[in-house]
Amino acid sequence: MGARSLAAVLALSALLVFFGAAVHGFFQGEPPEGLDAKRVVIPEGAGLGSIGAILKGEGILDDARWFSLVGRIGGADRKVRAGVYRIVPGTPGGRILRLLQKGANEVVRVTIPEGLRVPEVARILASALPIPEEELLRLASEPVFAGSLGAPGPTLEGYLFPDTYFFFPTDPPQLVLGRMVETFRKRFSAEEEARAAEMGLSAREAVTLASIVESEAVLPEERPLIAAVYHNRLRLGWKLQADPTVQYALGTREPPLLVDLEFDSPYNTYKTQGLPPGPICSPGEESIRAALHPAEDSSALFFVASGEGGRHIFTSTAEEHGRAKRKARALRDSP
Questions:
Q1: Average pLDDT rounded to a whole number, residues 119-138
Q2: What whole-number distance in Å separates Cα of residue 116 and Cα of residue 34?
Q3: pTM of the model
Q4: Which domains are assigned to the chain?
């Protein structure tokens, strides 16, 4: 072997050793300690070149070209996934590539309280996730979409179950709403549906009644008593006369005025007989349980807010109800 050939071999060997060491460090190094992770958004369809540029721009990588080159050699360019990530600056490129192939590592925690209507749920979701509120509202009102999720109604009103959820920012609105309806179906299972049938109610009717209970109750222990009032009224063929149904018909949360009780709507239970056409909010588990298991020993047909810590006065006759209202009014007016 000539001198030039030997030099070429040695140079190639040195290059391979250097390249091997560099690649080893690329994949095996550890992220530096003491640095806070940065939030990085990887767009849909982004290639390794543009991803490297994003990471370099955020101060996470020093050499975007090396990142792109090694990633392409390993075939990572076909496996990276869009999403939102938290990455510590100085993290080895190989670790970053593995992370990008695994998927988004940032989740968003969203809590949906009991008793909210679809527009209110959509507002909370849109404020936490990059999903337009209008898109959530559109999907929630589509009968075909509701049917595809197994919701017992033409819209998702009443079935976006109140709970704490964890979503990825890249989750599409169909998945977000679908997970909430799935939670409802787990909480309102075949057992609850069978119980509703025993009471002569469909699943939708049971949830509708539970949504009224949810809207009326302040104290948890009163839910079964409130449910009993409405069950008693239904059994006697009386109008429910539930203020929250009027509020829902009017699209407000304000207490209804006397003139509002004449508002023409199938949801106005001061004018229509029986339950309204569907839920007026998303009831929680306790209200569903109360609707299916009302207080058994209650003959109450009326209740009124007492003005004391969210409590109600329950009565069985119109005369008693009149006295209870006067008592409650006196308590509210007293200094």
A1: 94
A2: 42
A3: 0.74
A4: 37-106 (3.30.1490.480), 108-187 (no CATH), 190-300 (no CATH)
